[in-house]
From TrEMBL:
Keywords: Membrane, Nitrate assimilation, Transmembrane, Transmembrane helix. It is found in: Membrane. This is MFS transporter. GO terms for cellular component: membrane. InterPro entries: MFS (IPR011701), MFS_dom (IPR020846), MFS_trans_sf (IPR036259), NO3_transporter (IPR044772). The lineage of its organism: Bacteria, Pseudomonadati, Pseudomonadota, Betaproteobacteria, Burkholderiales.
Amino acid sequence: MAKADRIDIASLHTPQMRAFHLTWAAFFVCFFAWFACAPLMPVLKGEFHLTAAQIANINIAAVAITIVVRLLVGPLCDRFGPRKTYTGLLALGALPVLGISFAQSYESFLLFRLGIGAVGASFVITQYHTSVMFAPRVVGTANAAAAGWGNAGGGAAQAAMPLLLAALLMLGVDQSLGWRIAMIVPGAAMLLMAVLYWKYTQDCPEGNFDELRAAGRVPETGGKGGWGSFRAAAANYRVWMLFVTYGACFGIEIFIHNIAAQYYVDKFGLSLGAAGLAAGSFGLLALFARALGGWLSDKAAHRGDLAPRVLLLFVLMVGEGLGLYLFSHAGAAVFAVASMLAFGLFTHMACGATYALVPFIDRKALGGVAGIVGAGGNVGAVVAGFVLKGVGDVQQTLTILSVAVMVAALCAIAVRVGIGSLDGAAAPAGA
């Protein structure tokens, strides 16, 4: 069976569309779980008597471990297939999500928050699975749509978790117990999704990698397999250029998810619910903005020339940097939300445009490329966290990051993937 050359949103009849819908749904659940703590931080700050430095450590821990896990899951997808890899991540990742409900101190909370960060690697598997299921003509749109709808889980968590806690409080549950009960919900959802993913997906259009290899057939992707995939990707300078650009768009996205609710409470005096809704609107842009970035990238390369994809990414990142600068200087809550939505639109579109390039860098080392570029997003978030910790002021940090994003946009131009075709060919690793 060949890769799908169209996206039939209403269908679940083909393995390509089942993979598409289940992978974005799994990603949504993982992102919801990953950021479920963030909108509750004003409550958790009082629960554990957290200092500003401790909150910064928690935010860094939430994204730091993801760097390592993202580097691992890309080659694991090449070796074992996305079906096994995703199922394992969902099942194991649910443990720290459930465990955080039992944290009794800053140290135990920090440890579980570190563990939860591993579920952020779900993004790499999502991008891998859609990349192997869809043809180059639509792969940018498929990648961006699946990632965007999944990313919306972060925004949904920002809006839903305070409301879930409020509902529990209305039922008479104590606040100290209420947030713990609320955190059980995303953990249970991950376990359910693990079962669904295992039962209803397959690794690629032809079947599962194990079955193909047993029959003497080598899957089109993952040809280098395991660490060979990682080494091939690591030797390609274009991978590291995208590593930087993704750090400057997705890294900023993660950073905003972690600090937005607290920022709206501290700077503008919003209630926990209002701050959660404001912060959640940023993440919910992913429902369409990331897909829009991938779709525009596909349209730009319609005649086979991939250079316009690079130029589009550059323009989007410059827009992101300018919008972030405006957000950092917002003096009123209304203007802050408006400017956040503006720069958020460019940020999500830039994320989609980045991964519209990934399948064309080296298809035989797709897992390695996807893993390294994906890890770049978390490196960007960690760097942003350390900048905040060093500067000690959110507004100054956002200003610094806005300049950094515009500088990083130059790396998009440096990719210069050149000319490619829409029949599945990709630029050689060393081209």
